TrEMBL record:
This is N-acetyltransferase. GO terms for cellular component: cytoplasm. InterPro entries: Acyl_CoA_acyltransferase (IPR016181), GNAT_dom (IPR000182), Ribosomal_N-acetyltransferase (IPR051908). GO terms for molecular function: protein N-terminal-serine acetyltransferase activity; protein-N-terminal-alanine acetyltransferase activity. Keywords: Transferase. PROSITE patterns: GNAT. It comes from Micromonospora costi. Pfam families: Acetyltransf_3. CDD domains: NAT_SF.
Length: 209
């Protein structure tokens, strides 16, 4: 059982020091400590911007979502504009391990099926050395806790690639269910490709329980 000791309710708060900052910057976050694995989500801080620049310019670092080089100045501008905590989209840094290393990020973007039916679409990218260590499913489960606690949405969705078995497994472990195949939904690596759409509803069972 992957429980955190938390059973429902708002995410637990914690404070960590952002690496590379001097003096260390105390940043509040939400945390999961389960089965010896520590994962925390916190707002982006200035020392994280080097990691975000890497995702813009290192081919494939972001995984199958790599779509070519992106403006490496964009992370600095976005951080200056709103700390990457916008009303309609945002990012949180994923920290992992006992020394709270920045392991990657999670993202969320607002969508709408009808005027009163808004939802969040989430995403994630971990640095390669943090993949396959139980961080990804926990980070996405924590992001759901965070979004369900602070916004009234009923639905959180996530898309992934048919060949992305790690993300399909991670989403299922984070409480998502497969809804179906979205045909030709992305142009990637030279051709249009199908995607798999997953969702988790507010009332779906929590993966922590
Ligand atoms: C996809 C990603 C977020 C998954 O997170 P992760 O930390 O690697 O996955 P976890 O360690 O939490 O594992 C979750 C499940 O997937 C399985 N899994 C992980 N890596 C796997 C692999 N390479 N092959 C098969 N299964 C794998 C795990 O075994 C676990 O299932 P289990 O408990 O039933 O064994 C991460 O690998 C990543 O950032 N990849 C690059 C970016 C990306 O693909 N983002 C998603 C775009 S849609």
């Amino acid at each position: 059982m992957p429980g955190t000791g938390r059973r429902g309710g708002p995410p637990a708060a914690s404070v960590s020091a952002v690496e590379g900052g001097y003096p260390p910057v105390p940043v509040p976050g939400i945390v999961s400590e389960t089965d010896g694995t520590s994962v925390r989500l916190r707002p982006v801080a200035e020392p994280d911007l080097a990691m975000f620049r890497r995702f813009c310019t290192e081919p494939g670092l972001v995984g199958l979502d790599w779509g070519g080089f992106r403006d490496p100045g964009a992370p600095v501008r976005r951080f200056a504009a709103d700390g990457w905590l916008g009303e309609d989209d945002g990012r949180l840094v994923v920290e992992a391990g006992t020394d709270a290393t920045a392991a990657g990020f999670v993202s969320y973007r607002a969508g709408r099926y009808a005027p009163s039916a808004t939802y969040w679409e989430i995403g994630i990218a971990l640095l390669p050395q943090w993949r396959g260590r139980g961080v990804g499913w926990r980070a996405q489960a924590l992001l759901c806790d965070y979004l369900f606690a602070h916004t009234p949405v009923q639905r959180i969705q996530a898309g992934t690639h048919p060949e992305n078995i790690p993300e399909q497994r991670a989403l299922e472990k984070a409480g998502f269910r497969l809804e179906g195949v979205i045909r030709a939904c992305e142009f990637r690596a030279g051709r249009w490709r199908d995607g798999h759409l997953y969702s988790r509803l507010r009332d779906d069972p929590s993966p922590w329980e």
